[in-house]
Amino acid sequence: MRHMKHNYWEGKPISPITISDSMTITQLVDEVFDGMGFNAKRLAEACHLFKTMIDDNSTVCLTLAGAMTPVGLGGGIIQMIENGFIDWIVTTGANTYHDLHFAYKLPVHQGDYTADDNELAENDVVRIYDVYIDMQRTLIAQDKIIQALTQKAVERNKFPEKYSTAYYNKLLGEGVLETAKAPGCSFIASASKHDVPVFVPSFADSSVGMGTSYLPIMANAGSMSGQLNPKEFIDPSPTMDVLESAAIVHNSMLNEIPRGVLEVGGGVPKNFLQQTGPMISQIIGMECPGENYVIQVTVDRPDVGGLSGATINEGKSWGKIPKAGEGNVIPYIDATVGVPIIFAYALDNCKPRKHRRLGERLPEITQELIEAARMER
Questions:
Q1: Tell me: the pLDDT tens digits for 315-352?
Q2: pLDDT score recorded for residue 8
Q3: Does 223 score more than 80 pLDDT?
Q4: Which residues are catalytic?
Q5: Where would I find the H helices in the chain?
Q6: Where do the domains of the chain lie, and which CATH numbers do they carry?
């Protein structure tokens, strides 16, 4: 008899699935998806891993690529924040911008992805695949709201000399809570309320960045010289973003708190979160094993060399995870399908957690990182 190095038959047998008309989300995941193969099995593993992050009291980060809020995913994020399941967020500016439409009840509707885009443009309709947004009533109206909220914060002397995008979004969320018709529909408002930092590392690459860049132009419209006053620029510091995000990871390390991340898509948010490990180990020189738990929900391929499709295991060589093959899973599935199932499973199986309120602690823990870094030199 040939010697078998591995027991290839230790996995549970696969049987034809049984679906009932009264299944809960937990039963669907545990009794159907978990007994299958392919991405159904990976999605079940992702649900279980997200539950593990929460149950282990991990510091949990959500990274959010693309434009997920226009299709309504922001509602699920709000529920995760309210239940204490997400402690900090890294996102594109598109998600923060479109998130605010719902707080101010601006038109966002289901549309037709086969529509004539020339005709849509003639009627001031902006299309994101099968989502329609009104140019005048939504986008331009939103631009004016963001500019007004930002200008009010300027007039109240809310901006220090140096600040991060998390600080800016905290102020923006406060403005939404004050002025919006439905602030409960905005994850930016919810994050601000619960001191969940929201970083936008590509701030300039968004309508929020475009809108706020316009403020100093208008402030100096009557100037004879036409010169802009640098003090009037809304200019979040990339340096502060890097330091504060690394400080969150460093603080968790000091307090021996596990760290987890749910990556929705890839892009800049994925890389920005994953660079916190190399920032601490490669740049500062302190040992940092990376994230303990990582889930990425994506449809991107790894073989074209982009970070969005890079496997989590590849991050081991960069110091982004402690060990390849452990504590991470990638369901290759549309995020608009996979992420709501992960969220629903968490709501069905996890008790609400106390909010960490990392936002109000950022100055303290950032200084903590700076002092630790100086001691390494």
A1: 778 777 777 778 899 999 999 999 999 999 999 999 99
A2: 84
A3: no
A4: 320
A5: 25-27, 38-55, 74-82, 93-103, 117-122, 141-155, 165-179, 187-193, 207-213, 215-219, 238-254, 267-274, 276-278, 335-349, 358-376
A6: 25-376 (3.40.910.10)
